[in-house]
Amino acid sequence: AALLWGTILLACSCGPGPPSVGAAPLLAATYVLDDANGLGREFDGIGAVSGGGGSGSAGAAVPATSRLLVNYQEPYRSQILDYLFKPNFGASLHILKVEIGGDAQSTDGTEPSHMHYENDENYFRGYEWWLMKEAKKRNPKIKLIGLPWAFPGWIGKGENWPYDYPDITAYYIISWILGAKQYHDLDIDYIGIWNERAFSSKYIKLLRYTLDKHGLEQVRIIASDRLWEPISFVMMIDSELHGVVDVIGAHYPGTKTVQNAILTGKKLWSSEDYSTFNNDVGAGCWARILNQNYVNGNMTSTIAWNLVASYYEELPFGRCGLMTAQEPWSGHYKVESPIWITAHTTQFTQPGWSYLQVDGHLEGGGSFVALTDGLGNLTIIIETMSHNHSKCIRPPLPNFNVIPQRATFYLRGSFYMVETLQVWHSRLDFESGSSSLFQQLHPLQVWRGRFSLDLNVDEVYTLTTLKTGRKCGYPEPPPPQPFPSVYNDDFNIRNPPFSEAPNFADQTGVFEYFVNASDPGDHVFTLRQVVVQRPITWVSDADQTISVIGNFKWVNMTVTCDIYIEKPRDGGVFIAGRVDNGGIYVRHSKGVFFWVFADGTYRVTGDLAGKEILMKGLAGVRDNAWHTLTLNIQGTSASGLLNGYPLWENVTVSSPGNGWAALGTRSFEFAQFDNFHIE
């Protein structure tokens, strides 16, 4: 009877029933869930990162990972945001972590800083403000984290280092937090130090002091968004540092922590994880680490990079988001399986709940966690992901085995009176490819505090007292379409909702809408490159600035653009086609680059660095005047026009054979662009 009561009667074909007579008996094991002796660590929530070069499709990925998202038309843009943030709808995220833009490359693009220059403050650049407000609109309780990947150059006074003048760096970061509140009514909950780079104890202490001085005592500090060490060790020997760091955040910890981190007594988070292609293997990776980061590593929050793949797919780490939205021009997006894996945890827990004290390893492989709100509610999440179906991008995953098994749970303490559990189930099917995701099954009857469950491989179960779970959806979005083969932008927009023009993905430098008040009329509204000093970089930004656009598969194209060099003598600008690289690899971009310089010369090069010269000569272009450049690439031949007249032709181009269109400048210098046209 106990077994009968305890097994879900699977009316739908969602998993195995009881083993048939004569079949090999399943491995059977029992597990006890009890709160009589107190609870485990407090749960801090599941989240995702926009930025870090990541979410670049909303305008760019958030950091630059959400680049293309903002350009979606309604209703599709709101639908995507609902799948990410709306409670009891889809991923129902508890935490949103954003890049504090630093004008530099952060993986898939550059995000603009709120202070390009020392005397400059603008809290309406980029798309992270908009994204945080949209998240808060849907879930007022969502937690917000800010973290810099890079910093504007003035902070280092010429050095590629943010800690020589820690008071300036702290002032810069606090300005961002205060601006979030003043201009957008956003309360930032947590602030980080410097993504995956060195920390300075002196700076962290000064940051805490400066936060408190500005009435921001409630903002918590996470350090150091890299590895568990050396931050944990330094906190153990420096009591003042220990006093100001609230959370130790590690990246890609492989579900493991270190002794020093535990000994600090601090909250431990996997503050960046996942970063895996968002197919079913990515979903398996995500399901496994969401549980095992706590089971193996005591981590009470896991944050995915990245939120939504909203950047050109051929940029680094294409489609490493919880869902995909990289086609604002068509309206197409895809709710990938990691969204529904997230829901298994997020829809049935909240920050402030507590984990139960239990060893969550299943005898037959896999894991479980149990959480309670302390008010009688109980949520159990079980995953049985196999090794080959749950590999994350990093670190390497040691071998392990998972087999079908029967798990019997005994509910003790305040849970003994639970009579029914709601059941949500996912099965990742790698044979037929027809996975079943986040399906509600019949409720499970608990008999005298006991129930049993037959678990197959590559499954996720949520068993919960909560009845609020929902698998929501919208009608299918429009079908995918390539980037339009004829594209124009005259940048004539009086009050743009965003500071950057749609679909341009900045890869070094920042290109912003600009109002040219002194212009007689033709070029009042332009696109301007505004970063004039090399930033404190996170990766190797190019020495030139560049923004890419279009379809990476393009072969033959004509690119036309009006250009305006602002820097006398050695200023210069380019337009380009077949550009083959961006993101962290932007320095190595090849393509066909047509340059004109303020000294009256021109060049055609096969690379952004300008080392591979295909043609050069005199053009007669000068600074502070408008000129029109046209680049035509057909097959293995390229030609260029200046102001509508041929300037060079029959230049042989062999590789690359395809790539984006682009525009940019010779150095970190002001320059303007207008009437951009691609065919």
Automatic annotation (TrEMBL):
Catalysed reactions listed for this entry: beta-D-galactosyl-(1<->1)-sphing-4-enine + H2O = sphing-4-enine + D-galactose; a D-galactosylceramide + H2O = an N-acyl-sphingoid base + D-galactose
Occurrences of domain Glycosyl hydrolase family 59 catalytic (ranges): 43-347
GO CC term (a single one): lysosome
Example GO biological process: galactosylceramide catabolic process
Gene Ontology MF term list: galactosylceramidase activity
Occurrences of domain Glycosyl hydrolase family 59 C-terminal lectin (ranges): 506-679
Stretch forming the signal peptide: 1-23
Location relative to the cell: Lysosome
The keyword NAD appears for this protein: no
UniProt-annotated catalytic positions: 196 (proton donor/acceptor), 272 (nucleophile)
PANTHER family according to UniProt: GALACTOCEREBROSIDASE
Name of the protein in question: Galactocerebrosidase
Organism: Urocynchramus pylzowi
Lineage: Eukaryota, Metazoa, Chordata, Craniata, Vertebrata
Gene for this chain: Galc
